[in-house]
Amino acid sequence: MANYNYDEESVKALISWTENAQLLQEVTLSEAEHITDTKIYARANINDIKQHYPDAFYNPAIDRLYRLKEAVESIK
Questions:
Q1: Residue 27 backbone phi and psi in degrees, to 5
Q2: Domain boundaries, the chain
Q3: Which DSSP string do the residues of 2-45 spell out, in sequence order?
Q4: Residue closest to 73 by CA, chosen among 13, 23, 14, 31
Q5: Nearest to 2 by CA among 70, 76, 75, 53
């Protein structure tokens, strides 16, 4: 698992990237994770982060956006 940053500046940058990225309709993050609508997936995770940050219990939402970013950038 990658080492992700959870500081406020990094999380804001990640949210900004996600909101402005040209997301594919579908993306596969792992053998068990096939996202069929990346816009809904991204919005749901952003909403969790905005509602609960910096509560570490919600760090998985941040992880999911980092993983989405990695997947999108690896395709380009």
A1: -155, 145
A2: 8-75
A3: -----SHHHHHHHHHHHHHS---S-EEEETTEEES-HHHHHHHH
A4: 23
A5: 70
Residue type, 55: D
In this structure, the chain runs to a length of 76
**Based on C-alpha coordinates, what's the Rg of the chain?**
12
pLDDT in tens, 22-60: 999 999 999 999 999 999 999 999 999 999 999 999 999
Distance of CA 48 to the CA centre of its chain: 11
Name the residue among 67, 76, 59 with its Cα closest to residue 24.
Answer: 76
Could you tell me the pTM of the whole model? 0.92
